[in-house]
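I'm curious: can you give me some protein's one-letter sequence along with its backbone structure tokens because I've never seen that pairing?
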Amino acid sequence: QPKRKAAFGSVGRRIPYRILHVINQDGESLGNMHRAEALRLMDQHGLKLVLLRDNVEPPVYRLMTGQQIHEEQLKRAEKKKASPRPGVVQKELSFSSAIAKNDLETKTKQIAQWIEKKHHVKVTVRQAK
């Protein structure tokens, strides 16, 4: 099994950057500081440093409790589930329950083609009048 990617870039003491922008657990900016000073703050308050954004200069880290990290991971997982994956196409097909046999066969062939192309297929059957 491939190793599951963590929700955060890095948590804890392994910090590859020298200068960091640090945010405290309440969301207030503490400004830019050296890695050693950020680690000292982390140890003083019994918190963990979590990388939020590394595509900015300097990278943004936040001091978080274990509970805050867990809650953030759950939020990110929910957001990832809710958003549709890029490249996945969803096809929708609806027909009446009084559909003729020939039409039903044609639509099932269409559904089979979509499934072969790895599309998500949603089928709705309406009740006949």
The helical segments are 35-45, 66-82, 101-116. Residues 66-82 form the longest helix (17 residues). The domain at 19-82 is CATH 3.10.20.80 (Ubiquitin-like (UB roll)).
